[in-house]
Amino acid sequence: MALKARVLYDFHGENPGEISIAENELVTVFTEEELEGWLEGENTRGEVGLFPASYVELIKDHISSSASNNGLSSPKAIAAQSPAHTSHTSSDSPSHRGFKVGSGGGSIFNTSQGSDDDWDDDWDDGSTPAHGPQGFSTTPPMYPVTTSLPSRRSSQQQAKSSATVGRNLNRFSTFVKSGGEAFLLGEASAFVKDGDKIVVVMGKHWPEWQEDPYPFTCTIDDPTKQTKFKGMKSYMSYGLTPTHTNVQVNRRYKHFDWLYARLVERFPVISVPHLPEKQATGRFEEDFISKRRKGLIWWMNHMTSHPVLAHCDVFQHFLTCGADEKAWKMGKRKAERDDLVGANFFLTISTPAVPLDLQEVENKIEGFKTFTKRMDENIVVMNTTIGEFSRKQMTGFKKEYQKVGQSFRLLGQAFELDQQAYSAGLNRAIAYTGESYEAIGEYFAEQPRQDLEPISDLLDLYKGHLANFPDIVHVQKGALTKVKDCPKQEGELHERCNIISCATLAEIQHFHRTRVRDFRSQMQHHLRQQISFFQKITAKLEDALLKYDDDQ
Amino acid sequence: MALKARVLYDFHGENPGEISIAENELVTVFTEEELEGWLEGENTRGEVGLFPASYVELIKDHISSSASNNGLSSPKAIAAQSPAHTSHTSSDSPSHRGFKVGSGGGSIFNTSQGSDDDWDDDWDDGSTPAHGPQGFSTTPPMYPVTTSLPSRRSSQQQAKSSATVGRNLNRFSTFVKSGGEAFLLGEASAFVKDGDKIVVVMGKHWPEWQEDPYPFTCTIDDPTKQTKFKGMKSYMSYGLTPTHTNVQVNRRYKHFDWLYARLVERFPVISVPHLPEKQATGRFEEDFISKRRKGLIWWMNHMTSHPVLAHCDVFQHFLTCGADEKAWKMGKRKAERDDLVGANFFLTISTPAVPLDLQEVENKIEGFKTFTKRMDENIVVMNTTIGEFSRKQMTGFKKEYQKVGQSFRLLGQAFELDQQAYSAGLNRAIAYTGESYEAIGEYFAEQPRQDLEPISDLLDLYKGHLANFPDIVHVQKGALTKVKDCPKQEGELHERCNIISCATLAEIQHFHRTRVRDFRSQMQHHLRQQISFFQKITAKLEDALLKYDDDQ
């Protein structure tokens, strides 16, 4: 059952196992089953190997009727398909991850679905399918989820493939996965209650999320160790107290994790902050717990200050549902069956009266891309510099001050060999000065935790956001490209593209506002800490100086 | 004319050219001329080579009548000699260096008679013998001066050789060179005016120099460049203004150098502070001038606060003689022909009524030896530590703060890509914070000059004193040993030993007092500088913090 396929674009095999194919060439495809976006086949020169699935179009007559139609259909074939699958009304996979999975590598925040230290501990009824260690969900019928973009050329080639308003050939495109494409093509459909409406208003220059009329914050207490199954299982429990209820609820890390997965699939163009990493290093358990808690606080701050995220049902359920197991499960199931995820999210967006100028949107998006690139680069530099500075303070600076302190102390001890009354005061003072320098060495060693680590945590949080935005921007760019290339269907497409653009720009604007707020407050915190650090040193030295007046 | 000599102590040749000789062995001496304390000869095993002159006793019958009798006489032979040579009434060697030469190696203060940058420039009449580049004087008849103790065992073996009250066999012994031995043996004689009397009083526990009834200080201005011979010669001139005359005199470094030489030969048991090093490094001329001036200030402070040194004729001449060339030369010649140098110095000492208990003196001296050893060790450690700390601040610390500052500035620049009004204030504030950190880096680099260098200078001054004291202590020990071994001549010997002991202990006491004073004031200075340094940093950071409130 050798299939034939027409090559849509030139592809030059560069790596072992790949073969080159030319536009309009007819190639043989050995099996229609893709291997991470690649097909195996033979070109007209008789070479056998791999080529990207998205570069070819299977010859219609040979299309198999198999349900596993993984992106091999021609645009027309798919356009003819029913949109019935586009709203997956139930996701029975609580750990379903969405398209941002794995994009934040390197930061303390991550989204990988590794087994948590307390993950294997059942916390829900049997209706939830069991998770393997990696816990990835089975793919929903039409929009497969994966952890990485398999084709190295996907985004570049994507532009080419949008020559007609049809489905995107690359199933791994964020535009597709997020539901952006489906929405743009009018395939999204769901019932949107008034309470679900998300309003984008026109700010001075940018669309913005409507300001939160009921702002609140939420504290996270030090986690406590809990046990269950008669002490067989233990886990850390975080007490969360949102200010709008002022009632504490207890949550475990895996609850955050579950919530995160819901949010990611729910909001295609909103940057859901990454959770702090989950791998317990074991050796530094207390450090790890403290670090995770700090990460969760940053996470929570971003959540509660986001007008959309803060008030979405699943987050409110997470923040307010008490110890009633039944109520928790009900809310959980409701969230997992939420109709307004992915493509349908865009149905909830209410835009400003005047549509945006698409050219201006494009400029803004381009500007933002440049911004994020620069910021990302600088975060890397800054994190390295700060890390190095911390290390130097904790080792080198400390050592230098302690060595000086020690040499003062030794001199004081040598001087003590002279037992005459008039030298005793000096000896004590020098000894005290030595101790002071040793203490100052300790101050230096302890300081980075107070003023550099918080900056580093902030940078990590923003590194997560910066890792989210390429995908978000990609959704908007996908819509824009499609609309530009097809003026015929302007009315509806433009309207839907405007919705996507409004949401994207509102999210970008929100990013900038929180960035300015967060960096301002963190820099202030840093400087205040530094000031009190140097004041502490000064006080110590003033103390030492006084000793030279005593006993003179 | 092969001489014979009897070996007094075993000597094991360890280095090439040395031969071993055994006690009581009769060896052949090829020439009685010593080579820096060594003789050449042949032992009974036929080995030819060098052995220490002080380890052998030339056989009497063979003693040459030559005038160059350099320590080869047997004790008796020497005891029979006339004491006529002991008071060298005129020293025509203005650069005569005394016995402390070369003992302060490694410090910024030194006593070596190297050619100064302006030394070759004539400043006196032709009656002064010309100086070679190393400028060492011809040795006075009886007490040769050298820059180092030639025998590695001299001080240990010294004790053995004092079995009878005779001359010391080792002509390089400080006890001998200083004139201590000659004085103890009653060979010193000179006319002592009342004005020359130096009074030692009994303090609470220690003999002390009588307090200076006319204390004064002396300022040293920044040196000015002077020229002579129509600009052919240039030199630095220091303006000195002693408070007791309040008239400025101008002196060059070589004047200090000449004065130093006078003081060293004049006062056998007084620690004359070493002058700052004279080698101009050339490349850092300004640094060098500033460093030398600081060294001269320390030197001057010690001089003016020393009851004996401050009021001695030569120092007063140095401080008060104006521009009158003739008056200067007269004073200069007078000082160079001073009768009360070396052994005769002790004739000027007036002791407390009750003689010291020699055992107690010995204990005190022993205690002081322990003290100086410990202090010397600790000065080395401290100087190294401080030097390293300075270096770290000037390079590492500076670099770290500047790197952090730079990364802040870069982040600020990245943020400037977002041109929205609400972010402008933050961007400026972050940029300012970056600059502040870079400034703080500079502060760190500049600070050591303010607070570590002065300590280092102080340590150098004291390193010089500590290098002086072994010789001073040696003089006293030499006297004590002689007295203990010879109870017969108790009366006179004891009295003279008491004089040496009183002077030595008074000097030790003075050392302790100035040490306590100097270290107290320097530590205070250091701490005050450090405090204002950290306050400056704090102010800079407070400044930066304010920027985050502006434009918000």
Strand order of the largest sheet of chain A: 4-3-2-1-5
CATH superfamily of the domain at 358-547 in chain A: Arfaptin homology (AH) domain/BAR domain
Number of strands of chain A: 14
Discrete helix count of chain A: 12
Biggest interface and which pair forms it?
A-B, 62 and 62 residues
Oligomeric state of the chains in view: homodimer
Descriptive report:
The structure is a homodimer of 552-residue chains. Among the domains of chain A are: 3-59, SH3 Domains (SH3 type barrels, Roll); 214-350, 2-Layer Sandwich (PX Domain), CATH 3.30.1520; 358-547, Substrate Binding Domain Of Dnak, Chain:A, Domain 2, CATH 1.20.1270.60. The first copy, chain A, has twelve helices and 14 strands. Chain A has helices at 75-79, 154-161, 174-177, 180-184, 253-266, 285-304, 313-320, 325-336, 358-415, 421-451, 453-485, 490-547, and strands at 3-7, 26-29, 38-42, 48-52, 56-58, 109-110, 198-202, 207-209, 218-220, 224-228, 233-242, 249-251, 275-276, 349-350. In chain A, a hairpin with a 4-residue loop joins strand 10 (224-228) and strand 11 (233-242). In chain A, helix 11 runs antiparallel to helix 12. The longest helix of chain A is centred in the last third of the chain and has 58 residues, at 358-415. Chain A is elongated. Residues 62-108 and 110-164 of chain A have low confidence and may be disordered. At the A-B interface, helix 9, helix 10 and helix 12 of A face helix 10, helix 11 and helix 13 of B.
